[in-house]
Amino acid sequence: MSDPGAAAADGRAQPLAVVVLISGRGSNMQALIEASRDPALRFRVARVFSDKASAPGLEAARRLGVPAEALVAAGRERADFDRELAERIEREQPALIAMAGFMRILSAPFIERFAGRMLNIHPSLLPRYPGLRTHARALAAGDREHGATVHFVTETLDGGPAVLQARVPVRADDDEARLAARVLACEHRIYPLAVRWFCEGRLRQHAGRAWFDGAPLDAPLQYEDLRPCA
């Protein structure tokens, strides 16, 4: 794990290392990399891993100057894959692992190894719609609002303590693609913010709950309370 107290030669704190896991194009990964160029955010994306060699996000990360590699999961025992992935991650000594469209369910030993150091971004207002096809499910249910949630990762699929949400209205003319695009734009805002909070020491997981600024969160923070997300 990166040392939060490490300082650069000029006395400023070193940015903390973040490892990002992807399975596809990695648009949230790209948002994190681009946000990390602001020195005020105090984190850097050290490496990107994908469980698929064909993931477009691998080349996108490289174009942005971040090392990226595939560790292919297909055909492997889950325990063996998770063990190797964990060992590769540990080489980077990350403060945080950010899952960004990583579609593989990780084993309990992996999650325990990095407990409290894993965040995920999910395209729904959890606890509504864990799993897949969240936008279609929100439309089918006639929801008036939809959104995205950043949460800590636990063994429960999309069930870890929620940290931050952004909400968007569901419009009368929405289809799955239009709704997904608006939610994704909000994901790109809230994920770098949550990672920043973690790397500043403001956000933690403790005793099964998310804590922010030293107090437990009874409900996830709402991005709209901070700034609008249309």
Q: Short summary of the structure?
A:
With 230 residues, this protein is of the alpha/beta class. It has 7 helices and 11 strands. The protein has 2 domains: 1-114, Rossmann fold, CATH 3.40.50.170; 122-151 and 161-230, Formyl transferase, N-terminal domain (Rossmann fold).
List the helices and strands and how they pair.
Layout: E1 16-22, H1 27-35, E2 43-50, H2 56-63, E3 68-70, H3 78-91, E4 96-99, H4 108-113, E5 118-122, H5 134-140, E6 145-152, E7 162-169, H6 176-199, E8 203-206, E9 209-212, E10 215-216, E11 221-222, H7 223-226
Parallel strand pairs: 1-2, 1-4, 2-3, 4-5, 7-11
Antiparallel strand pairs: 5-6, 6-7, 8-9, 9-10
Helix pairs in contact: 1-6
Describe what you observe in this structure:
The protein has helices at residues 27-35, 56-63, 78-91, 108-113, 134-140, 176-199, 223-226; strands at residues 16-22, 43-50, 68-70, 96-99, 118-122, 145-152, 162-169, 203-206, 209-212, 215-216, 221-222. By secondary structure, the protein is of the alpha/beta class. The chain has two domains: 1-114, 3-Layer(aba) Sandwich (Rossmann fold), CATH 3.40.50.170; 122-151 and 161-230, Rossmann fold. An eight-stranded mixed β-sheet has the order 3-2-1-4-5-6-7-11. Strands 8-9-10 form a three-stranded antiparallel β-sheet. Strand 2, helix 2 and strand 3 form a beta-alpha-beta unit. The radius of gyration is 17 Å and the shape is globular. The N and C termini lie far apart (36 Å).
